[in-house]
Amino acid sequence: MQLARVIGTVVATQKYEGLQGIKFLVVQPLDKRQQPEGEPVVAADATAQAGPGELVFIVGSREAAQAMPIKFVPVDHAVVGIVDEVELSKQ
Amino acid sequence: MYIGQVAGTVVATIKHEAFRGRKLLLVDRLGLDNQPSGEYDICVDTAQAGVGDRVLVLDEGNGARQVLRLHEAPIRAVIVGIVDDVDVEACAVSS
Fold first, then answer.
1. What is the CATH number of the domain that holds A65?
2. Cβ A71–B72 below 8 Å, yes or no?
3. CB of B10 less than 8 A from some CB of A
4. Is residue A47 within 8 Å of B19, Cβ to Cβ?
5. How many domains in chain B?
6. Cβ atoms of B44 and B27 closer than 8 Å
7. Among B11, B29, B42, B45, which would you mutate to test the A interface (most chain A Cβ atoms within 10 Å of its Cβ)?
8. In a 10 Å sphere around its CB, with 0-12 CB exposed, 13-18 middle and 19+ buried, how is residue A30 labelled?
9. For chain A: N or C, fewer Cβ within 10 A?
10. pLDDT of B79 strictly over 70
11. pTM for the whole thing?
């Protein structure tokens, strides 16, 4: 599970039937200091409340689909939480 | 599994219900030299770990669900132990 910033939304009317009603977001993965790291990905929003600009945390691989109402769906990244605060030690 | 060091805490109010009541820690992955490799995971803590602790991290979904006793959960990384000591034979280390 990693930090990410929501940078956009994706609209797809025609999609796999198990994905109906799921909101998709474009998210930029971040390093622990919240700097961009790697390429942006499309993630399904399991919180249903995340929007552009927000700091979130995402889960990748098969566990992403576990966040969805229907478990066996083609989803490989999911937003599973909206981050209020990250507190790092001084080191 | 890998050895990491707890670098901080993560607070999230709005989250998937599988995370409710669970402590989230940000863990740096450590290399053989005991230094952060640059990779990290946000982990669910099951070992009462704190910031600065060296910990054992399980990063695999089926095992994570088993540890948390959940049938379905979008959780992959779990802290399953606090490391007291690691001993690696010098001859096995290639840098």
1. 2.40.50.220
2. yes
3. yes
4. no
5. 1
6. no
7. B42
8. buried
9. C
10. yes
11. 0.90
How many domains does chain A fold into?
Answer: 1
Instruction: Please indicate, yes or no, if residue A88 is contained in any of the structural domains.
Output: no
| Residue A31 located in a structural domain | yes
Tens digit of pLDDT for each residue in B21-74? Answer: 999 999 999 998 899 999 999 999 999 999 999 999 999 999 999 999 999 999
**Residue B37: domain span:** 2-92
| Cα distance between residue A11 and residue A22, in whole Å | 10
B48 three-class SS: coil
| Residue A90, domain member (yes or no) | no
What is the token pair recorded at A19? 């994905």
Domain of B36, CATH number, reads: 2.40.50.220
Q: Looking at the predicted complex, does its ipTM rise above 0.90?
A: no
Residue A25 lies in a domain: yes
Cβ–Cβ below 8 Å for B74 and A82: no
Token pair for B26: 């940000």
Q: Do B12 and A84 touch (CB under 8 A)?
A: yes
Q: Measured between beta carbons, which residues in chain B are less than 8 angstroms from residue A87? A: 8-9, 11
Interface A-B, measured as beta-carbon pairs within 8 A, has a size of 96
Distance from CA of B91 to the nearest CA of A (A): 30
Domain carrying residue A71: 2-82
